[in-house]
Amino acid sequence: MIFLILFLLPLNRSSCGGNVFSNWWVASSNPCSVCLSSCLLEQHTSPTSPAGPTGQDYWSNKYPYCAGSFQSPIHITSDLLRFSPTLRPIEVRNYKLSSTEQLTLRNDGHSLKLSLPPTMYVAGLPNQFTAAQLHFHWGSSNWPTGSEHLVDSKQFAAELHIVHYNSDKYPDINTAIDKSDGLAVLGVLIKIGDFNPAYEQILRFINGAKYKNFEVRVPGFNVRGLLPARLDEYYRYDGSLTTPPCFPSVLWTVFRNHVTISHQQYLALVTSLHASSVQNAEVTPLNNNFRKPQPIDSRVVLVSFKEGLLVPILLSCSILGVVLIVAYLSCRLRQKR
């Protein structure tokens, strides 16, 4: 029985190898995954959540939604998963941009953000969602554990978010940002591994955005290359912005399969940027810009795949089987006496 359970366990896909924050979500017009407990995550602070009375534990003092329900990110665990046959493969449209298209890569002091043209959109959701921007969350050179979402206690080196707004119902992201059906975000978990040429299309310009409010022009490229090869396997849940004002307005799609970037690419991301302005005498590194996992609040996580979902059932059955065997042996021993 034990060998059967071990055989059916899913493979570990991450084994070692004035509202400034609201504007942060709005598009600009111009070495390995490791298991960490949530208590370890709380030891990290970030430019978006510095230590002390302005850190993420104190966001709700100014932004009440940050202490509300349906917050993100979350820790995705097997017991939360429910297969949904209605979840279809994600359909990204016009993600292959011409090199003549000029995008703006900007350091806003909280993350590295790339503007995206309104020709890009996601189909197959309840509404059409138009792209606005993408940005990153990451750890540090010493702690390559900066993804916002955790999967079965595993935190990845970094995470990419591609932000879209509901263009069927709202004229722009500013209008949609606080609506319950306003946003849809594609989340990509990033592991240190092989060199990634698609991510290099962004990272090779990173020095042009070294300080807060610095920006640089980036030629268009195939944004589809930033996503995993398979767009039909993902986690889906209702959540929020992961920075203030924390509006619960996001339909989250977190892809099951991670992508990789090289160690050199990761170091470029986590060591090149400053959260401080160029005029500041004291330089503040921009790293560890992730929010810790939030309460589940009775939510379930819908999944588009069935593989691995039998594990909790098998484990429950195996425990029941052990109990029955022990009860039977106990009964036989009493009979012999």
From TrEMBL:
Domain of life: Eukaryota
Entry-linked PANTHER family: CARBONIC ANHYDRASE, CARBONIC ANHYDRASE 12
One Pfam family named in its UniProt record: Carb_anhydrase
Catalysis performed (reactions): hydrogencarbonate + H(+) = CO2 + H2O
Record-listed E.C. numbers: 4.2.1.1
Protein name in UniProt: Carbonic anhydrase
One GO cellular component term: plasma membrane
Function: Reversible hydration of carbon dioxide.
